[in-house]
Fold each of these.
Amino acid sequence: MPRAEAGRKGTVMEKARRIRLGILFGGKSGEHEVSVRSAASVIEALDPSEYDVKVIGIAKTGRLATAAETGRMLPPAARDRVTPCDVTAGNGHHVQLLPGATRTDDQPEIIFPLLHGPYGEDGTIQGLLEIAGLPYVGCGVLASAVGMDKDVMKRLFMQAGLPVLPFRVVRSGEIPGSVDRLTVDLEQDLGYPMFSKPANLGSSVGVCKIHSRHELADALAFSAQFDRKVVIEKGIDARELECAILGNDSPQASIVGEIIPAREYYDYQAKYADPNSRLEIPAPIPADKAGEVRRIAVRAFELIDGSGLARVDFFMERGTGTIWLNEINTMPGFTPISMYAKLWAASGLAFPDLIRSLVRLGLERHAERTALRVSG
């Protein structure tokens, strides 16, 4: 947070300058609604005396929304606290995302891309912001892309020796003509239960739990509607644990939390619609297991070259206590019931301080990138 500057002799000290924070939300993905909820939650939690919040909306079609459309995307409580902006090369209530565009004093100093899933969390928006020369919160292009693709992510973790459950990957286009062969192979390699999920999606969108051969073909076909690759994972009887990461080159891990889903597993409805799903923070697990989760979480973050923030998800197998790394999320949800902010609050970092840290880390990483040489 900028320091308050001393006024001239005989005047009172001026208040700290408000940070011009641009919040980018919505997006062309199955997680559009989650992004809107995340944006509204962050906006309503920000101190208006500390942040001048400008919002940029992306419609479900992927088109940049007008300022009027952006305002309508938000609930009234959030809408009254922000300035909706158009994205053009003009002035006024506009945000300039064009490479080389002249920045005005009214432009956001840093962008918070509260986008989940493809076209937002996968490095595409991060690449646009890099080209435009704008600082932003969160992971860069590479980490975002790797963190979104569960196939590439899991292969990277396996290569580094981290504990990943057995899985298979099939191309969506191959599924219709090879269900019989896939059934035999998957039953032999993974057994029941197993989970099918799109490789590049989050919030459990497109995920199916497969209990028997009778469900396999339909589950694969359903998951294949959302991505060109489908990941099929071995299912185990396990507790679901999560750990939050904050930092750039020296990332810190929060305490560990546990998800208690209201349904058979933590699907989209259990995450965002069922009030009976709950979080246990801290997770009631042995101290050595919590330490193992935190160490693996930091290592996973470092492996993808993460920056800013991430939430790392785990399974702890019932009966054996074995810890399995599930996945890393480079832009976790910020809804009122989302785990990331709750984990840091329980670790002693209140929400306003968390936002300040994320903004500072984004500005620091941008300064590092711009200081690098681009030619010999």
Note: The first helix runs from residue 32 to 45.
Amino acid sequence: MTNVLPSGLTNCLLWSDELGIGYHARPPIDYKGAYFTKYQKLDDSGMGKSLTASRLAFVKRHFDEQVLDIGIGGGRFVTEANALGFDVNPEAIAWLGDRYLDPYQNKVKAISCWDSLEHIQDPELLVGTVTDWVFVSMPIYNNQEDCLLSKHFKPGEHIWYWTRQGLCYWFEKLGFELIEENKIESDLGREGIESFAFRKRN
């Protein structure tokens, strides 16, 4: 996408008030190295355990089959949910072993994107592989100014930025309807994080 932008707009936030969606054109960070180890430690913290429990309960309210976790963090959700996983970090891929599944090569019934959808260069392509459910947690912004001032504004790491209306509109265009939303992760101490369950329309 950045190759079609004017040179002065290749490292800035591009924001549409009309759509409630922002895109940052900075090149993505490299997810190699200690990224997986860092998130294993976070997963093992009290917060990590509480987040995993809340996410498990959230998914089970709607879907009782195996999900594919996109961007597995430290892997705790994969283990406790008996999920499959997909990641770009070499250490995470090695850890997954035979639980690794590439959604771009396989249709899947359900995916979970805990703090990962906003990291993906072409999230529409990913969601297009899903036949039933998408479970998402991510930062939600009121507007462009709120985004720019947020601690979650992380160019190169976070590529996409959404308002609530923008995210729901984006999923609706892809054929999904909102079934549940909550702020349990914010209630647990994660400022500005909201969770959503979207179901594919028949």
Note: The CA atoms of residues 13 and 24 lie 4 Å apart.
Amino acid sequence: MATEVLMPQMGESIAEGTISRWLVKQGDEVERDQPLFEISTDKVDAEIPSPAAGVLVEIKHAEGDTVPVNEVVALIGEAGEKAPSASEKESSAAYAKQSPAAAETTGREEKRPQPTPKTAPSPPAAKPAAAAPEGPSEPEAPSEPETPSEPVSEAEEELAERVRTASSPVVRNIAAQEGVDLSEVEGSGVHGRVTKSDIMAYLQKREAAPSAPAPSEPETAVAAAPRRREGEGFSVPAYTEGENVEIEPMSKIRQITAAHMVYSKATSAHVTTVFHMDFSKVHAARQRAKNGFLQAHGTKLTYMPFIFKAVAAALRQNPKLNASIDGTNIVFKKDINLGMAVALDWGLLVPVIKNADQLGLVGLAKTANDLADRARTKKLSPDEVKGGTFTITNPGVYGSLFGTPIINQPQVAILGIGTIEKRPVVVSDVDGNDTIAIKMMSYFGITYDHRLVDGADADEFMNDVKRGLVEDSWSELDPYV
């Protein structure tokens, strides 16, 4: 029996993924765990491995297709098995369509009931047993509409509507931007769920609908005015006719990231505060141990494990920052899973360090470096981009003093790390005398969701991080000095 290759779920809120590239061809032999195809979501851009060894018998979705999670994208058969030809597929489909037995085995259709003299639907509690109709049997008229075998209750209709409109954040954000009511869009996903391809097709159809301009309005005035859709503000054209520009399409991960960021800004009440952090003690500990650490573990000791450890300890003391909002409920996360933003040539990914508060400097360094390396080579698994409770981004490696990052939904805070460098600062001795000293310093900017986190909560958390960076003895590094 062929093994099904499913579209994986690459995050809690992810309902679909886009196949960006097939790495093997139909009919090729593949090994277990061999990369089959690449996908893009708003969480990750990753290679998906083969679940079994054999032959890639059939590819069901082409490059560029957006596929719901858990839908079959390919089939892997026995070694030596050939892919079905086009004629075999057509004949198989025709047989399944014409044969009642085949329709039964698919589980997707019920046998059409024979016509009965009853016109009103039977009560839902009493399901009639199948019985042959009385009188001579006549062929059903093709123009007669098919009626459902059982009535659908209001509760079932309401549930189906909730499932259909509970689309991914990307779809909901596009609908909000374009002023689209999702209940008006025909969904092709599971249970009629509206996918990204569904809403994009709806928008294209809406754009193509003819609109009659007012004959009295001059053509030049219409062309000069920015376009406006119902329920939206004015839209300013990105370029004008004859302007010297070069146009290239956005990558899938860039499109999804853009939609996710706009969705986050529209969801959370963003506030940012900035703290000046003393890295003198961290810098000294790292300088003493970095060579021995590299020799012992084969990986570099950067500043980030020190930051991860201080943040994880502060989150344990400040649970509001490690929570999410669900309607009018607060969801406090018991695990501390740190998302670490990784900048790539083709976009931004956020792999997750699970249970970061239970790891020491060695574990944090090895885990973070491994996740970053595999993010760059598209080797991350679905579990490694799920479950983040707090995110840390490090634009300081590019020289940024500090930033105001956007919250990674459904979290309520994100920490931005500024460049770590020597700066003159005022220090006071025990007698209160002030002097100027040169220290390794950094600006940390935390953006938080003011719906849940107040300024005092964020400041208390940041002060705990600040104390962790200067008060920890970092004795874990003694063996590497």
Note: The two ends are 58 Å apart (CA to CA).
